[in-house]
Design goal:
Blueprint: E1 18-19, H1 28-37, E2 41-47, E3 50-51, E4 62-68, E5 71-77
Parallel strand pairs: 2-4
Antiparallel strand pairs: 1-5, 2-3, 4-5
Length: 78
């Protein structure tokens, strides 16, 4: 299996997606505390080299995350 490449991921190339650079580098624990307090739900799209199934439905309150070694390397809302 090849390593996960967020640049080629169609989930993150959507025009409707809003990047969240403020979450980059944070741990999942830190992001969970910040985003649940803001009323958002989290969805992990990929972790290390594993990609998870996800639906293509739009949810303005959802933060989609890609994690590497327990840290956020990509975050977007859609």
């Amino acid at each position: 299996m090849s390593p996960y490449d967020p640049q080629s991921d169609p989930w993150f190339s959507s025009r409707a997606a809003r990047d969240r650079p403020d979450l980059l580098g944070l741990s999942l624990t830190e992001v969970t505390a910040l985003e649940t307090a803001a009323g958002h739900v989290l969805r992990i799209i990929a972790e290390d080299d594993r990609v998870f199934a996800a639906t293509a439905d739009h949810n303005d309150a959802r933060v989609n995350l890609v994690l590497r070694d327990g840290r956020v390397i990509r975050a977007s809302m859609f």
